[in-house]
Amino acid sequence: MSEPFKRLIQIMSDLRNPDSGCPWDLEQTHNSLKGALLEETYELLDALDFAGNVEIIEELGDLLLQVIFHAQIGSDNEAFDINDVIQNLNEKLIRRHPHVFGENHVKTSKEVVGQWEKVKAAERAEKGEGKKSMLAGISTSMPALAYAYAAIARARRAGFDWEKPEDAYFKVLEEVQEFENAVYTQDKEAEFGDILLSLVGVAYQKGIDPEQALRSANNRFFSRFSKIEDGAREHNLTIAELTMEQKLALWQEAKNSEERVK
Questions:
Q1: For domain 144-208, is the CATH number 1.10.287.1080?
Q2: Mean pLDDT in the chain?
């Protein structure tokens, strides 16, 4: 264990010391830290998208703090400690990479994924969960789009896939038609959900992470809309006062500026 890591463990232990620690840190529980864990995860994602190495290092540290914090709470409760966390991770990595640490031989990433699914199936069987769905291990706390991608990825790896690649596109068109034909709001919502799910299927087929794709689209929308706001202010107008032609012209100008940057 490196000296900086040992120092980090000691600092966290000191912060949780019942006699001389920090009152706020001592009050925290696994449950109370859930929000912070989620927030730090999203801040790291932002840093990976927009920032440099200095910011990425800082956000990785903040996320690591959450791991150390939870491990210290576990230690204080005499349930587990950071060594248990690391040991469990080490064993899992070795177990799921028999082509590196064992005698198995694979040549492609596809073969690795297939082997990985077999290993995880064996793990479920060992836990007495052999009859549980392979989708049961996906966290339902994930954003819906990320969950959909993870679920479809597992289903596809298990062989639940289209015979022809173009069938995935036809499924999208089929779902759009069913959405158009739906009469009641509840049905429209269900069919719209099916459209999104079928689009995720296309994304998986093309090797696109839909969560990242939508994040990028959100960023582009923010940038372009901001330019429309700037254009409106230059004319001492609100966006509502701009004509549709003006709005479209500003939008296209924003898109063109993105192309010039590329």
A1: yes
A2: 89
